[in-house]
Amino acid sequence: xxxxxxxxxxxxxxxxxxxxxxxxxxxxxxxxxxxxxxxxxxxxxxxxxxxxxxxxxxxxxxxxxxxxxxxxxxxxxxxxxxxxxxxxxxxxxxxxxxxxxxxxxxxxxxxxxxxxxxxxxxxxxxxxxxxxxxxxxxxxxxxxxxxxxxxxxxxxxxxxxxxxxxxxxxxxxxxxxxxxxxxxxxxxxxxxxxxxxx
Length: 198
Prior knowledge:
Strand order of the largest sheet: 2-6-5-4-7
Number of domains: 1
Low-confidence stretches: 190-198
CATH architecture: Alpha-Beta Complex
Distance between the termini: 38 Å
Largest sheet: 5 strands, antiparallel
Oligomer: single chain
Number of helices: 4
Helix content: 25-40%
CATH topology: Cyclic Phosphodiesterase, Chain: A
CATH class: Alpha Beta
Strand content: 25-35%
Shape: globular
């Protein structure tokens, strides 16, 4: 199974992100826009840890550790602000960052990464940088970086209340990926209202 751990988005957030993508497509115009492969909002997740291909036995073990409660209260995330990867040269990925909830997401990510590390599943060596991938460049130039960052309007795009993290199985196919949630680890008291992030 190809597995990853993520915070899932709700329909309102996906709709708002689709609107932001539409704005960016218009802003970039036909030339730059055609160089980008846009990610469908229904395929977006805020990925906390990518686990890769695991056999059935290891997958069942991961389910057992991820479905345990997550320490910490429920919280809110606000998405906003554009960025690109990598940090230098021609960009390959256009992403949407977090305006609030960064510290809380980082704490949750550390917890799930520690859990899977105890199972012998090494976390990715790159530092964790919470984001949603909006698009990937098929071909790009250095000028695409400036153009993408100039399109940032500095406004909030979407908000979600985080109550759980999900262990998700992805299946890759020519028609596009499909996702199945295998289990959830709940945060704090699910009956309590979400906390506002600064």
